[in-house]
Design brief:
Largest sheet: none
Low-confidence stretches: none
Order of helices and strands: HHHH
Helix content: 55-70%
Number of domains: 1
Number of strands: 0
Shape: flat
Length: 97
């Protein structure tokens, strides 16, 4: 849990992350060309499908996912009380309640 006014990541991003990203970006064209080649000429359908998915993900982003929540689901009362008490405790600990 975080203390109010204190960073959860005081060190910030790891130092080598920007350099690694830049190095990877230098190979973007080569990687995209290889994915296109695999999508078109792979011997296995699974390889071709994986390459197609990777290309589409990079071009349009990954598809959004929906989550269904059943608000009428039954939960025993004792369990609900325990969950609510824990939630209140966490909110109090964070100074939000």
């Amino acid at each position: 849990m975080f203390v109010k006014g204190k960073s959860g990541n005081p060190g910030g991003r790891p130092k080598g992350e920007a350099e690694l990203r830049k190095l990877a970006q230098e190979h973007t064209v080569t990687c995209i060309m290889r994915l296109v080649e695999l999508a078109q000429k792979a011997d296995r359908d699974s390889t071709s499908l994986g390459a197609c998915e990777a290309l589409l993900d990079r071009a349009y982003g990954r598809p959004s996912q929906s989550v269904a929540i059943d608000l009428n689901a039954t939960v025993d009362v004792e369990n609900k009380v325990t969950i609510l008490e824990e939630a209140r405790k966490r909110l109090r600990d964070r100074g939000l309640l």
